Structure formats: C-alpha cells, structure tokens
C-alpha cells in the first residue's frame, strides 16, 4: 500500500524559496505513475500545484508555473517541490499525493503547514 | 483551461438524501473522468468517488456519482445521511496535463 509523507520547514520568509519533500513508501517511484503536489490555504479550497511523471516530465499549474519546480529522486524514492519568491499568499497546507491512475489523486499524504512570514 | 464550479454549501437532515453539483465551464464533462473527495476538518482528502461513478473499497454504497452531459455537470449523491458525512466535498477532473479542483462544498448534516 502506497504511503506518502511530506517534510520541510514550517516557516519561510517572504521572497525566499519554499522547499518540501515527499517520501514514498510501499511503491518504487521508478516503476511508474504520476506524483503530485496540492495546497490548501487556511479556510480555503484545494489548488493543484503540479505533477511529475516517474520519468521526470513535469506539469505545472499555469498560475504558478513561473515559480514552481518539481523533481523526483528515484534513489531516495521521493519527489520534491520548490516554490520561489513566496509571499503570505503562499501560506497553506501542502499535500503530496500519488496518481496511480493519471486522473486520480490517491492516496494523499497527511499534509504539512507552511507559513510565510518574516 | 476549464473551471469546476460547486455550490459553497448545502445542508440536509440525517436520513435524507443530498446532491452536490460540479459544473464544468468549458469542454465536455464526459471527456474526462471526475473524482470526488471528502475532507473532514484537520484531515487529508480521501476519495469517495473516482472515474465518475466508481466507489473505492470501504466507501459505503450510500455514496454515488453521475455525470449529465446536458448540464455539463457531475453530481455526488449521498443517501441516508449520517452526521459523520458532515465534511467538505471537492470534485476534480483532468484535461491536457492540467488537473483542476472545484472550489468545494461544505455539507452540514443537521
């Protein structure tokens, strides 16, 4: 059974880069499938950030594309998110999820709250 | 790119049936699968419906999904409402390497 766990700093300063990692267990990333990042600002809805195929092909939300980089590290069986030039509007719970079918996010990690503040 | 529009909130009494809609702004609702996620406060989303009308194992058959091409919308129906169904529900679809979520619907069971 696939399990995912997000990790990274809970506090990031404005204008800096947010970096998160999603560790995958129960499945080898190099074997296939897509992997994704989704965020949820406090009290608001879900927003897709981007997805990556196991081969490294990436797909980003057009509204965030200029600031987002998603990468995969098959040796560590994890994938990562970098979001540059953050502002308070980027404060959110960040989730990673697997896409064992390309259209369907399941399962999800537990999420990690990232606050952007000086 | 397209958008998915959901009602902000719905409410119904225990034992009754409620339907939550999800309308696609452009392109056909039938051209890409729709998924529905349930999110309880403080928890990660979990799937209640995938591929328009399929239930993952463990999801009760009180949950059902459908699509309506005439209104270009998908619907999540929950019958025999229980207080434990009170949660936020999100629809989601996918098109041309672009994944889209609806804005979410808060279901109150009172």
Give a structural overview.
The complex is a heterodimer of chains A (118) and B (110). Chain A is 0% helix and 48% strand. With 118 residues, chain A is an all-beta fold. In chain B, strands 2, 4, 5, 8, 9 and 10 form a six-stranded mixed sheet that branches. Chain B has 110 residues and is an all-beta fold. Chain B has strands at 4-5, 9-12, 18-24, 35-39, 46-49, 63-68, 73-78, 87-95, 98-101, 105-109. The N and C termini of chain B lie far apart (37 Å). Chains A and B meet through strand 5 of A and strand 8 and strand 9 of B.
List the helices and strands and how they pair.
The complex is a heterodimer of chains A (118) and B (110).
Chain A: E1 3-7, E2 11-12, E3 18-25, E4 34-40, E5 47-53, E6 58-60, E7 68-73, E8 78-83, E9 92-99, E10 112-116
Parallel strand pairs in A: 2-10
Antiparallel strand pairs in A: 1-3, 3-8, 4-5, 4-9, 5-6, 7-8, 9-10
Chain B: E1 4-5, E2 9-12, E3 18-24, E4 35-39, E5 46-49, E6 63-68, E7 73-78, E8 87-95, E9 98-101, E10 105-109
Regions with little confidence, pLDDT below 50 for 5+ residues of chain A: none
Oligomerization category of the chains in this entry = heterodimer
Helix content class of chain A: under 10%
Rg result of chain B: 13 Å
In whole angstroms, the N-to-C terminal distance of chain A is 39 Å
Strand segment tally of chain B: 10
Order of helices and strands of chain A: EEEEEEEEEE
Shape of chain B: globular
The overall pLDDT of chain B, averaged over residues, is 97
In percent, how much strand structure appears in the residues of chain A? over 45%
Share of β-strand residues of chain B: over 45%
Q: Which class best fits the helix and strand makeup of chain A?
A: mainly beta
| Helix content range of chain B | under 10%
Biggest interface: A-B, 22 and 24 residues
Quickly count the helices of chain B: 0
Tally of separate helices of chain A:
0
End-to-end span of chain B in angstroms? Answer: 37 Å
Tell me about the largest β-sheet of chain A. Answer: 6 strands, mixed
User: How many β-strands of chain A, per DSSP?
Assistant: 10
Q: Order the strands across the largest sheet of chain A as they lie in space.
A: 2-10-9-4-5-6
């Amino acid at each position: 059974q696939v399990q995912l766990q997000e990790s990274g700093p809970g506090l990031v300063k404005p204008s800096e880069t947010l970096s998160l990692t999603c560790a995958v267990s129960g499945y080898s990333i190099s074997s296939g499938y897509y992997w994704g990042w989704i965020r949820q600002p406090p009290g608001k809805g879900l927003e897709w950030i981007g997805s990556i195929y196991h081969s490294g092909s990436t797909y980003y939300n057009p509204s965030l594309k200029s600031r987002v980089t998603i990468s995969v590290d098959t040796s560590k069986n994890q994938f990562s998110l970098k979001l540059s030039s953050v502002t308070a509007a980027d404060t959110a719970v960040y989730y990673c999820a697997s896409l064992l079918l390309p259209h369907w996010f399941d399962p999800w990690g537990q999420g990690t709250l990232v606050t952007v503040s000086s | 790119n397209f958008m998915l529009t959901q009602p902000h909130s719905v409410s119904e009494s225990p034992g009754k049936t409620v339907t939550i809609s999800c309308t696609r702004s452009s392109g056909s609702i039938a051209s890409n699968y729709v998924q529905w996620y349930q999110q309880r406060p403080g928890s990660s989303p979990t799937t209640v419906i995938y591929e328009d009308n399929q239930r993952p194992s463990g999801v009760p058959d009180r949950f059902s999904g459908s699509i309506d091409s005439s209104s270009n919308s998908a619907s999540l129906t929950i019958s025999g409402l229980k207080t434990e169904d009170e949660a936020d529900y999100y629809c989601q679809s996918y098109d041309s390497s672009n994944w889209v979520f609806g804005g979410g619907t808060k279901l109150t069971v009172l």
